[in-house]
Each structure stands twice: as structure tokens, then as C-alpha cells.
Give the backbone structure.
Amino acid sequence: MDSPEVPSQSPDDSSEDRVGPVVTVRSIRTSDVSALRPILETWIRYPDTHALISEEITDVLNRAYEAAAKKGTSKYFVAETNEGQIAGMIGLQSPDYAILPLATTPQPIEMTNFYVDAELRNSGVGTTLFNMAASQALQAGFSEMIWNSGPRYRETAWGYYTHKFGEPIGVLKDYYGPTYDAPVWHFVLSRQ
Ligand SMILES: CC(C)(COP(=O)(O)OP(=O)(O)OC[C@H]1O[C@@H](n2cnc3c(N)ncnc32)[C@H](O)[C@@H]1OP(=O)(O)O)[C@@H](O)C(=O)NCCC(=O)NCCS
């Protein structure tokens, strides 16, 4: 029988020795929210014009604030360097109905808003954030993390996801508009 205490997969930890910032991952506080804005402003842009998508940034910041204020059901975690700099964020939310059919276990949770400061990418911050979200999700009784990534992030995240979690388990057709398909990855925590 599968053990429910131990994740049945583990992201590749081969980078453990890499020199990078020392970060602590913890639940978000309301005082962290303003520090997330510059990180979001780096990544939430139209790929063609590079213009900011202000509405979406505001929406993400509002959701992060609500989670920090313990309203709603979403959970957000931030990575903080030992100098007190907010280095990245990750969120967990109830899965969108469209992604649910791709889940392979009974209690999936959707990962969302996964962003690391541009200067600190590829130094282990994202993986530290992801691992914390996974351990919290498992502790809360979820069996699987599942997420999509839109074409906007083809160059900045798809390679990372496939490297860490394998090929996508499916695709949400036209999820971000006609022809804007979103591949879906997952990480099984427990088969329950
Ligand atoms: C995706 C993201 C959160 C990952 O966080 P990160 O801190 O950069 O990732 P880490 O440093 O923990 O891990 C990097 C690993 O991925 C690998 N990797 C990164 N880009 C890759 C690519 N295009 N192809 C294959 N592997 C890749 C690195 O080689 C490294 O592997 P290793 O751990 O085996 O050495 C971060 O890069 C980011 O913020 N990207 C921009 C915003 C974004 O696209 N967010 C996702 C929205 S869905």
C-alpha cells in the first residue's frame, strides 16, 4: 500500500549544492504584498508588446492579500532571503473545473502564481517554494498538485516544469483564448 506520509515522487534535488541565496519559505503576511508587485511586474506582461497587464497584477495582489489576511481558501507562500528580500511566491487554490478531469488522484489542489525575482532565478528559490507548498498540501490532506501554464510562460517556465516533473499530462485547449493552449503538469503527493 502507498504510504500517505511520504510524497510518492520527489522533484529533482540534484541542485542542492548549488550556491544561491539562503531563503526561508513561509506563509505570506499582509506586509509582504507590496514587495510582490515588482516581481509580478516583471512577469505579467503581454509577450508581443511587453506591456504590463495591470488588471491581472492587481488581481493576483488582491488574492495574495486575502490569503495573508486569512480570508478565503487560497494559500500563498513567499520566499524571503536572509537579508529580508522577498524572492518569490507560490499559491494553492481550489482547482478550476477545467483542470479537474486531468487529476489522477481524489484530492487535487491547483498550484498558481509561481514567480521568482528575475535576478534570483535558477538558484533553487522556485524549487524551495514548490517543496514547501507540496509539504503543506500533503499535510492538509491533498493528494496531488496540478497546474497549467499559459503560452506566455513557454520560455520561462515550461522547460522548468518538464525538467522537474516530466512531460505535461494534458493540455487545456484555448484556455487563454483561441489558440492559446495551456499544458498541464502535476505532482502526485499521495495515492490515498
Ligand atoms: C519557473 C520559476 C518559478 C522556477 O523557479 P527558479 O527559482 O528559477 O527554479 P530553480 O532554481 O528552483 O530550478 C531551476 C532548475 O530548472 C532547470 N531549468 C530552468 N529552465 C529550464 C529550461 N528551460 N529547460 C530545462 N530545465 C530548465 C534548471 O536547469 C534547474 O535545474 P536543476 O535544479 O536540475 O539544476 C522561475 O524560473 C520563474 O519565476 N520564471 C518566470 C515566471 C514564470 O514563468 N512563472 C511560471 C508561471 S506558470
